[in-house]
Sequence to fold (132 residues):
Amino acid sequence: MTPRFDAIGLVVADLAASVAFYRRVGFAFPEGAENEPHAEARLPGGVRLMLDTEEMVRSIVPGWQPPAGGGRHSLALLCDGPGEVDAVYEDLVGAGYHGGQKPWDAPWGQRYAVVHDPDGHGVDLFAPLAPE
Fold:
């Protein structure tokens, strides 16, 4: 028996706000997911993004408290090209989400930007600078 990577789970304060953010960048959460304490979107390749409310987590782990600080993890989204990095960043920031790092040409050969979801989870946007 070998365990297989199947899902990424994030704990969120406001599930509806988080579902709206991740839908905006292309995650296909089912209709009505924003009204539940747990929501899942299947990603290409079969991995799932799971969102759970803080209340849901406390129902499983009594006394659970969100960690202080932040920056402990991020999701990285591959864009089709450098222009898409810029466009997605501008769309999200224009919609009121916090831009953590404006798009820039990173020394490792990628156009790179960071936006924060409603709970402050980093969402990295990137694309190779040169065609592969």
